[in-house]
Amino acid sequence: MTLQPQTQLVILPERAQDRPAAEALIERAFGPGRFVKVSERVREFADYQPDLSFCAFLGDRLVGVVRQWRVRVGDAPVAFLGPLAVESELRGAGFGIALLERACEAARRAGYVAVVLVGDEPYYARVGFSAAAAAGVELPGPVDRRRVLAKPLDFDAPPLEGPVRPA
Ligand SMILES: CC(C)(COP(=O)(O)OP(=O)(O)OC[C@H]1O[C@@H](n2cnc3c(N)ncnc32)[C@H](O)[C@@H]1OP(=O)(O)O)[C@@H](O)C(=O)NCCC(=O)NCCS
């Protein structure tokens, strides 16, 4: 029988019991170097939002995770996204994009005006992120500006402007 992982993928909000498997996947995907990233400085003061964070399952196996955090950019309520990780042998099947779409839609419904992250624009542009939309966003540390990305969720809101700060 041919495995068709995309049809079997189930995406659910992250629950407390998912945490050990989600943390283990993030550790495998990023290693200890992740703690020196500027995103980690943001996560130190941001509010973790379990209802905006999702795990992807094939059967009982957790194979992907995306987390979001509540912050403000200036006065605007913004979701800060990351980490995003998919189990290495299952990459390229669309799971990452599926997790991103789910996370952004949840943030939109919750009233956030944008999602901000630090990552590779060629990948995240597939779901509407751009460095241009994040041009006014200031992060709490040195960062390659080309990797600071935003996806507007409310097109009536003014452009993001100011430091990323606690909500
Ligand atoms: C990045 C990651 C989450 C993507 O998950 P995935 O399930 O493989 O993603 P998808 O299947 O939805 O998309 C895969 C496509 O994106 C492309 N892609 C993946 N990472 C990319 C990157 N950094 N830059 C540009 N394109 C990328 C793949 O080449 C593939 O292209 P194709 O559709 O033309 O074949 C996964 O590779 C991962 O966990 N990596 C390690 C952790 C990481 O780097 N996370 C992101 C931090 S910013």
What can you tell me about this protein's structure?
This protein is an alpha+beta fold. It has one domain: Aminopeptidase. Helix content is 26%, strand content 32%. The protein contains five helices and nine strands, in the order αβααββββαβαβββ. Strands 1, 2, 3, 4, 5, 6, 7, 8 and 9 form a nine-stranded mixed sheet that branches. A hairpin with a 2-residue loop joins β3 and β4. The longest helix has 15 residues, at 95-109. The protein is globular and about 40 Å long. The mean pLDDT is 95. It binds coenzyme A. The site of coenzyme A has 16 residues, from α2, β5, α4 and α5.
Output the keywords.
167 residues, alpha+beta, Aminopeptidase, nine-stranded mixed beta sheet, 26% helix, binds coenzyme A
Question: Layout of helices and strands, plus pairs?
Answer:
Elements: H1 5-8, E1 9-13, H2 19-30, H3 38-45, E2 47-48, E3 54-58, E4 61-73, E5 76-86, H4 95-109, E6 114-118, H5 121-124, E7 137-138, E8 148-152, E9 162-166
Parallel strand pairs: 5-6, 7-9
Antiparallel strand pairs: 1-3, 2-4, 3-4, 4-5, 4-9, 6-8
The structure holds coenzyme A (COA).
Coenzyme A (COA) is lined by residues 29-30, 84-86, 91-97, 119-120, 122-123.
The number of strands is 9
Uncertain ranges: none
Integer-rounded radius of gyration = 15 Å
Shape: globular
How many DSSP helices?
Answer: 5
pLDDT averaged over residues: 95
What's the architecture, going by CATH? 3-Layer(aba) Sandwich
Instruction: List the domain count as a whole number.
Output: 1
The name of the CATH superfamily reads Gcn5-related N-acetyltransferase (GNAT)
Strand proportion, as a percent range, falls in 25-35%
What is the SS-derived class?
A: alpha+beta
Characterize the largest beta sheet: strand count, sense, and whether it forms a barrel: 9 strands, mixed
**The CATH top-level class label:** Alpha Beta
Which small compounds were modeled alongside the protein?
coenzyme A
Helical proportion? 25-40%
| First-to-last CA distance | 49 Å
Q: CATH topology, anyone?
A: Aminopeptidase
Return the string of H and E elements.
HEHHEEEEHEHEEE
